[in-house]
């Protein structure tokens, strides 16, 4: 998938548990897992705003575009 959601990286940097994050954003832990695992097909702007507010980040910190032909996993984690 060309768009990678970096929630796991941001949560780790902030030492925040998924459950705490889910509660603060207003999502279920299952929906956070869908975002983290790249299975989400869409994100509402209101949800994106809540995520950015809780993580104190910009949308660009959260989302990363990766070319389809990227073969090196290190490129995805940059």
UniProtKB/TrEMBL annotation:
SMART domains: HTH_XRE. The lineage of its organism: Bacteria, Bacillati, Actinomycetota, Actinomycetes, Geodermatophilales. This is Helix-turn-helix transcriptional regulator. Residues 20-62 form the HTH cro/C1-type domain. It comes from Klenkia sesuvii. Pfam families: HTH_26. PROSITE patterns: HTH_CROC1.
């Amino acid at each position: 998938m060309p768009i990678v959601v970096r929630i796991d990286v941001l949560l780790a940097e902030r030492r925040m548990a998924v459950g705490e994050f889910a509660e603060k954003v207003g999502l279920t832990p299952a929906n956070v897992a869908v975002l983290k695992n790249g299975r989400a097909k869409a994100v509402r702007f209101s949800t994106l705003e809540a995520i950015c507010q809780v993580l104190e980040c910009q949308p660009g910190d959260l989302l990363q575009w990766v070319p389809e032909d990227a073969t090196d996993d290190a490129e995805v984690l940059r």
